Amino acid sequence: MGLVRDFLVILACLQLGKGVAAVLPFGFPGSIIGLFVLFMLLSLQLIRLHWVHDGGQLILRHMALLFIPVAVGLLGYLDVLRDGLWLIIGTALAGLVLILLGVGHLYQRWNR
């Protein structure tokens, strides 16, 4: 019965986030808003951690299985991925370098 409660709380936050995203004048993922709502509810202790802990652990434990449909769906776009492979790799590497430079700069600044 505990897992049902856990999933209902997580699902309620997800649906609330989707509702908020639907009324926003710009596009924003409802799942991110729902995650933020869950974070805020946990931070303000309006819901207790043990209300969502076991359900969250179960989802995290089986997260790899949740990516299988996405990976299979990408197989339909292999030609598009092949054409833009170097752009994807270059963008990922540039992002990695920018993040490392930014974090390094902030670390040096805070340690002065």
UniProtKB/TrEMBL annotation:
User: Which segments cross the bilayer?
Assistant: 31-51, 58-78, 84-107
The membrane topology of this protein is: Multi-pass membrane protein
| Entry keywords, A to Z | Cell membrane, Membrane, Transmembrane, Transmembrane helix
> What InterPro entries does the record tag this protein with?
LrgA/CidA (IPR005538)
Report any Pfam family annotated for this entry: LrgA
Keyword Membrane appears in the UniProt entry: yes
* Keyword Cytoplasm (UniProt): no
As for subcellular location, the record says: Cell membrane
Q: Quote the protein name from its UniProt record.
A: CidA/LrgA family protein
